[in-house]
Amino acid sequence: MQTAGAFKTLLNQYSLRAGVSYLIPESGYGKVELEPYFQMDYSYATVEFKIGMEQKYVLKNISAFLHSIERNEKVHYGKKLDFYHNRQAFTEDAWRMVEFMRMQDDDKKRQSRFHAYYAYTGGYERTMELDEVGIDRFFDAIGEMPLSAEIGYLPEEEYHVQEEERKPKLEIRARGVWCVPCAGGSARHKGKQILLFL
User: Fold this and answer.
1) Secondary structure element (H or E) that encloses residue 57, with its range
2) At residue 186, does pLDDT exceed 70?
3) Burial code of 48-74, b = ≥16 C-beta within 10 A, e = fewer?
4) What 8-state DSSP symbol labels residue 79?
5) What is the pLDDT of residues 67-77, one digit of tens each?
6) 156 CB contacts (<8 Å, ≥6 apart)?
7) pTM of the model
8) What's the rounded Cα separation, in Å, for the pair 102 and 142?
9) Residue 111 pLDDT level (bands cut at 50, 70, 90)
10) Closest CA to 23 of 94, 82, 91
């Protein structure tokens, strides 16, 4: 028995409004992963993604993927990946990546409305370009996920991002008079101390 196209659309819309997950097979519930691939040259950064469970497929159109999530659509990626794009289908790590993608896509749309020189070309295809804000958002979203990356002219490697406390290279204490460090780096003022990070 085949379900008519109009009825499938109606089921998709109902499930989206109701927030139900009956359309996700148990084998795929909470198992869909997004695997980022980060590239950074000296002043230019991009990220691409693969999607899947055991077998990963290249995510060929990021904006179409986000649209499918908004509409709770079923998308076929390959022989081993066919699922309704619902929050419950994704792992927690993957959902953080989805939220990151949404913020970047929204920024791109917003910039194109207010700045004529930012031509919004309909969204992101396979590659998402990152500015300074995008890079920060990306690393916030990564959390402790492993990350495949090419940085500079180094070959592709797997990285693990960890937070660590920055310790000052130089600390200048003054009584009543502020001393301003002349060396390069960033300075932070803490009470009667100036901390210099190089």
Assistant:
1) strand 56-58
2) no
3) bbbbbeeebeebeebbebbebbeebbb
4) T
5) 999 998 989 99
6) 148, 149, 150
7) 0.69
8) 15
9) confident
10) 82
